[in-house]
Amino acid sequence: MTDDVLLTAGTRKGLFIGRRRGGTWQFDGPRFNAQAVYSVGIDLRRSTPRLLVGGDSAHWGPSVFHSDDLGATWTEPARPAVRFPQDTGASLERVWQLHPAGPAAPGVVYAGTEPAALFRSADEGETFELVRPLWEHPTRGQWQPGGGGEALHTVITDPRDPDVVTVAVSAAGVFRTTDGGGTWQPSNEGVSAVFMPDPHPKFGQCVHKIAQDAGDPDRLYLQNHWGVYRSDDHGVTWTDIGAGLPSDFGFAAVAHPHHADTAYVFPIHADSDRVPAERRCRVYRTSDAGGSWQALSAGLPEGDHYGTVLRDAMCTDGANPAGVYFGNRNGELYASADDGETWQLLASHLPDVLCVRAAVVG
Predict the structure, then answer these.
(1) How many domains does the chain have?
(2) Full domain range(s) for residue 191
(3) Over its length of 362 residues, how does the chain's per-residue pLDDT go in tens digits?
(4) CATH number where 90 lies
(5) Which letter does DSSP use for residue 272 in this model?
(6) Could you tell me which residues come within 8 angstroms of residue 343 by beta carbon, excluding any fewer than 6 positions away?
(7) Where are the alpha helices (DSSP H) in the chain?
């Protein structure tokens, strides 16, 4: 545990920032008092990491802030960084995702929003432009909001080709472009929508999160509104891998940063009873691409537990062995420094934890 790690926790009432130096954690915050922080991006492609935060003020509305000194100071552009063009007739409600693209696309950052749209920045998150072909997709008129709203909440970029981008929308499903956003195709074959008359529609699935495998960029893991899936062809088709989990309902899905075929989920009992499966605080890990699942609970609460983990409230930090982190709606923040084998409580009594992001910065 010698890596210098930065850990951010966006909550219903601000951003908390932790630093681990020499195995010791220190926290400060909240920043953005009284703002709900649904999205944090950590851009490691620069000589100095840039933090990007999607804040949501009940008074001033949503905005995107950035920091180039690991959160000590923050800049908000004079002109809103993310805003809908006037001709769309839409207004920004929330920034759900801030995703720095890979090294093949320096300076490019994507923002996923509500209403569901994708914005692209070419200047490290200073300004964003609407990706119109997705906004104007012929299926858009049939998209429906999920329980949390109509959110584009996940962006996956292919490290081999910056023109290949995969997004997930609740509740419209997975869409994919291979030409830099010029055209988009629904990519939901095999993913169910149990709440629709046709349980296997071309689009309309309520996808909760997607993660990309460390060993094979074409391998993706998907946590659905009922169902955990794997794709081996970058989202063209999906296979159910939920067997062995106590519940295949949940929100979070995270891939290990270095180990192929390894991913983590946090099962929730049901959509009608959103507490941990079997009322136990447990992360589940697969090391064989979903062939089997192992419960990870050493150091986690042993009794009945009711802390739901939301879609962006679990992450890894890029270390080896990997740090794995999650926060819950009880305001608890947990960390593992050994790939999830053992856990410790880092903070409690925080506001409702909405997103967690971490990175090795030293």
Answers:
(1) 1
(2) 5-360
(3) 568 999 999 999 999 999 998 889 999 989 999 999 999 999 999 989 999 999 999 888 999 999 999 999 999 998 999 999 999 999 999 999 999 998 889 999 999 999 999 999 999 999 999 999 999 999 999 999 988 899 999 999 999 999 999 999 999 999 999 999 999 999 999 999 888 888 888 999 999 999 999 999 999 999 999 999 999 999 999 999 999 999 999 999 999 999 999 999 999 999 999 999 999 999 999 999 999 999 999 999 999 999 999 999 999 999 999 999 999 999 999 999 999 999 999 999 999 999 999 999 97
(4) 2.130.10.10
(5) T
(6) 296, 297, 298, 299, 300, 334, 335, 336
(7) 132-135
